[in-house]
Specification:
Largest sheet: 7 strands, mixed
Number of helices: 10
Helix content: 25-40%
Distance between the termini: 39 Å
Pfam families: DUF4743, NUDIX
Strand content: 25-35%
CATH architecture of the largest domain: Alpha-Beta Complex
Organism: Menopon gallinae (poultry shaft louse)
CATH class of the largest domain: Alpha Beta
GO molecular function: 8-oxo-dGDP phosphatase activity
Number of strands: 13
Domain Nudix hydrolase: 132-273
CATH superfamily of the largest domain: Nucleoside Triphosphate Pyrophosphohydrolase
InterPro entries: DUF4743, NUDIX_hydrolase-like_dom_sf, NUDIX_hydrolase_dom
Number of domains: 2
Radius of gyration: 20 Å
Length: 303
């Protein structure tokens, strides 16, 4: 009982790390809403705001927000105007986040089901606190001797973000032009060589949301989560050069791995959610358990 309570306490501390914006930035009330075409699409920190306001023809300071110039009337014009600024900022090394520039864009929307207002390189979205959407696949097996085991990957040391950290088996953001299931299938093949035939077993199990903050910016993220039971003889292998290796871990070992400093903080909520749903993190301590559940389903409010 004591061991379980200690583990629950450590998991809650981890949840506070991946939801750290709620404990620091949001309470300060210093960030300004970012408005595009009348829609709030993000939140901008004061340090980032200071640089963006060097471009008053692009970003308009209002009494209670920062607004993209409303004279930009369509998706392409908004995209091109912001991209020009971001490329200039990248050349000047204004923002740490832009060192991870990928030439891969995310759509910027007022809500997931709304029409996109513009697109932006994924590395830049954290500067504006724009909500990102991604897909995560929990790969697992039911081992006859070890019980439930989870596949984890170690990210390549050449990755632009979180290099060398342990991570979920498969994950990837929803880039422009890709839906949820399309992204799941694409990332499963690119990251872990999972064939389409095995993807027939995939199960959509919900989503988790969190609000992370780092020196790079703000990350209000929603992850669409899938479970995939794999054959015992299947071993994932990487196709795109972004994964160093995979390991199959029993649940107790996997929990210690995600609690370590070697695990990617923003991937932890997906694994914790998996452990809760499969009965390996349970409510013996009702107070700590309820706090953990609350941390997994943060409402990504902007104010």
């Amino acid at each position: 009982m004591v061991i379980m309570e200690q583990r629950m306490s450590r998991l809650l501390q981890l949840a506070e790390r991946f939801n750290c914006f709620y404990l620091t930035g949001l309470r300060k009330g210093e960030c300004r809403p970012f408005i595009v075409e009348g829609h709030q699409v993000g939140l901008i920190r004061p340090d980032i705001m200071k640089t963006l306001l060097r471009y008053p023809e692009i970003f308009v300071m209002q009494p209670d927000c920062i607004e993209l110039n409303p004279a930009f009337r369509d998706y392409d014009e908004r995209t091109n105007r912001i991209e020009k600024v971001l490329r200039e900022c990248r050349e000047k090394n204004d923002f740490v986040a832009l060192k991870a520039w990928r030439e891969e864009c995310y759509d910027v929307k007022g809500g997931f089901s709304e029409l996109p207002l513009l697109k932006m390189d994924r590395s830049a979205t954290c500067l504006f606190g724009i909500r990102n959407y991604a897909v995560d696949i929990n790969g697992y097996v039911k081992h006859p001797e070890l019980g439930l085991c989870i596949w984890l990957q170690r990210r390549s040391t050449t990755k632009q973000t979180w290099p060398g950290k342990w991570d979920n088996m498969v994950s990837g953001g929803l880039s422009v032009g890709y839906g949820i299931m399309e992204t799941a299938i694409k990332e499963a093949y690119e990251e872990a060589s999972i064939p389409r035939s095995l993807m027939d077993n995939i199960k959509a199990v919900g989503s988790v949301s969190f609000y992370f903050e780092s020196e790079r910016g703000l990350f209000p993220n929603t992850e669409f989560v899938f479970d995939l039971e794999l054959p015992l003889d299947f071993v994932p292998s990487n196709n795109d050069g972004e994964v160093d290796k995979f390991e199959l871990l029993p649940v107790d070992v996997a929990i210690e791995r995600i609690l370590s400093q070697d695990f990617k903080t923003t991937s932890a909520p997906v694994v914790i959610d998996f452990l809760i749903r499969h009965g390996h993190v349970t409510p013996e301590n009702g107070n700590l358990f309820s706090l953990l559940l609350f941390a997994m389903l943060r409402s990504l409010r902007f104010r």
